[in-house]
Each structure stands twice: as structure tokens, then as C-alpha cells.
Design goal:
Blueprint (H helix, E strand, L loop, with lengths): L1 E4 L4 H12 L4 E5 L13 E5 L5 H8 L4 E4 L9 H22 L3 E7 L9 H14 L5 E6 L2 E2 L5 H11 L3 E5 L5 E2 L2 E2 H11 L8 E5 L5 E2 H12 L4 E5 L1 H14 L7 H5 L11 H6 L6 H5 L8 H10 L8
Parallel strand pairs: 1-2, 1-4, 2-3, 4-5, 5-6, 6-11, 7-10, 8-13
Antiparallel strand pairs: 9-12
Helix pairs in contact: 1-6, 2-3, 3-4, 5-7, 5-12
Length: 316
């Protein structure tokens, strides 16, 4: 049995779909009312509960040989949400995992994560990694580059921001920070293959796609693919952080967030040969992939919908 937390998220939904396609028994921990793709196959079992409820966590983990812990507040959560969902939630997962005697805990982190980082998202992800390493459970930590795909937040968020202003795009700094984009299907393939590779147990794996790109290169590529040319105007990062803080109070799902800016604060790269060396995979290139789903998409409408969304009520 395989347990997935965060099954309604971008990575969680893709992982569940892939496991169901292969006919693997999957259990999904889901809050009441959450939309989990349970209709994908008969092998999907939904357990109602949350990472804050010890009883439901234990019930979900009984008999699980692998737990993919993907629940996170990394995009729109505030600092207290990150501390509650990522830190406290992971500690609860570890406690229940010990009691249920799970086989392995697989956690998704970020390149650049460090407990001493000055940036909230990367610091909390680093603290999560430390919790997992000290848990006493068999584990695998995937430090991933920037994950993109049809339903991602970051790359599609840039396309939405391009529609917010028809003339200019405000870029934090000069956009020289290196990023390591990784297509969602390649990440899912790595997660699935890791279950069969014993040499990934008790390892922290840094992975990314086949190319390194600066943020400026990513913006220009998205402009070209979506046919939305704009004048790129460099701005001091602190001004955009102030703007993101203000906008987040009125529009909780506005694409520009503090965590979004955290990911641009430093170079975030890994060896480009890791996926091939570990799993004999050849990941897909950034521009070739976004061409398959970004061109012709109505990002202006998506931006309006994002601005009208309300923050959901907190579930205990």
C-alpha cells in the first residue's frame, strides 16, 4: 500500500494518477470536502482525515510500505501556515509513521533548502529535511528544481502576471539567478522509480531538468511561447516583496507571493546528470514542453479567477 498526503495539490494529483494507471494500491489522506481523483481506478482508497489528527493519520498509514508526504503551504501560505502545515505536519507524519511501522517516508523539498536560510520558505523546507533525517524512519528526500507543468503555480503565474500589465513586466533584480526547471512528469517518474531503487534509501537527492536557465531567460521564453511581449523592468526585490505582502492581504491567490520571490533569491541548481545516473531518465527541455500547453491559453481569464478566489477555512 502507498499513502499520499497532499493529494489535491499539483504534484499529488499527478502522482496519484500515475500510480493508479499502473494499478498500484494507493491510499489518499484527504480532508472532508477535498476533491481527490478517486475515480481514476479501483485501487484508489480515500481516508478522510488530516495531518493534524493522530487517529486518522495512524489509520491511513497502517499497512503502508511507502508514504509520499506532499502536503505543503509553499505557495500561498503565510509564515504561520508553513510552520503549521510543513513543520508540525511533518512531525505528526513522523510520529504516526513510527507507530504504524511504515517502510519508507518520501518527502519533496526544494533546491537551496537550508535551516539557516534567510528566506522563509527555504528555511522551513530545510528544517523539514532535518526532522526527516532525525526521524529514525527510512527516508528519501527529493530536493527538486522548479517543477512546471499544465497546472503549476510558478510558470503559469508568470504568464498570468504578463497579462496583468500589457506594457511592462516588473522583474526582481536583473533576473540573473539560475533556476533548474523540471517537468512534472519527469519528477513523478523519479518518485515512482525511487520505490524500486534501494540505493535511494536514506538519501537526499538533488534533481532538476536538462538545462539551467536564469529567471530572465525563463520570462523571455514564456513571452515568446505565449506571444505576450513586454518591456522587462528590473526592480529592487524588496519593493516587490512589499507589493506581494500588500496584494496577498486582498487577493490571497495572486500569482506574486513572498514564497515565489524566495525561490528567486539565490541560485538553485543540481547536477544535470542525476536523473540519468540514478534512474536512466532523460528529462524534457523547458521550451519544448511548455509549447504543448501554454500557447493559446487564456491566462487573462485565469488571472481574474485567481484574484477572485477566497482563502479556504482552516481545517483542524
Amino acid at each position: 500500500m502507498i499513502l499520499v498526503t497532499g493529494g489535491t495539490g499539483f504534484v499529488g494529483q499527478a502522482l496519484i494518477a500515475r500510480l493508479a494507471q499502473e494499478g498500484k494500491p494507493v491510499r489518499v489522506l484527504s480532508a472532508r470536502g477535498a476533491k481527490v481523483p478517486s475515480a481514476l481506478g479501483e485501487t484508489i482508497e480515500v481516508v478522510e482525515g488530516s495531518i493534524y489528527n493522530a487517529e486518522s493519520l495512524y489509520r491511513a498509514m497502517i499497512g503502508a510500505h511507502t508514504v509520499f508526504h506532499l502536503a505543503s503551504a509553499q505557495w500561498w501560505g503565510r509564515k504561520r501556515d508553513l510552520e503549521r502545515i510543513d513543520l508540525q505536519g511533518t512531525q505528526n507524519i513522523i510520529t504516526a509513521g513510527r507507530s504504524a511501522r511504515i517502510g519508507r517516508l518520501v518527502v519533496l523539498s526544494h533546491l537551496g533548502a537550508a535551516p539557516s536560510s534567510a528566506f522563509t520558505l527555504l528555511r522551513i523546507k530545510g528544517q523539514v529535511e532535518e526532522l526527516v533525517r532525525a526521524s529514525g524512519l527510512a527516508y528519501t528526500i527529493f530536493r527538486s528544481g522548479l517543477v512546471f507543468g499544465r497546472g503549476d503555480t510558478f510558470i503559469n503565474g508568470i504568464a498570468q502576471l504578463l497579462r496583468a500589465n500589457p506594457f511592462v513586466f516588473l522583474q526582481p533584480g536583473r533576473g540573473e539567478g539560475l533556476l533548474h526547471p523540471l517537468y512534472i512528469d519527469d519528477l513523478i517518474e523519479a518518485l515512482v522509480r525511487s520505490m524500486e531503487h534501494l540505493d535511494t534509501v536514506d538519501q537526499t537527492l538533488s534533481i532538476g531538468g536538462p538545462e539551467l536557465m536564469t529567471f530572465n531567460e525563463i520570462i523571455r521564453t514564456i513571452m515568446r511561447v505565449t506571444r505576450a511581449p513586454r518591456l522587462i523592468v528590473p526592480m529592487p526585490p524588496w519593493t516587490l516583496r512589499a507589493a506581494a505582502g500588500i496584494l496577498g492581504r486582498f487577493f490571497p491567490y495572486f500569482p506574486l507571493t513572498l514564497q515565489w520571490l524566495d525561490l528567486l533569491a539565490s541560485n538553485r541548481t543540481a547536477s544535470m546528470s542525476t536523473l540519468y545516473d540514478l534512474f536512466e531518465m532523460q528529462p524534457r527541455r523547458f521550451e519544448d514542453t511548455i509549447l504543448t500547453y501554454m500557447r493559446g491559453r487564456r491566462y487573462g481569464v485565469e488571472l481574474i479567477r485567481a484574484m477572485l478566489r477566497r482563502r479556504p477555512r482552516r481545517i483542524a
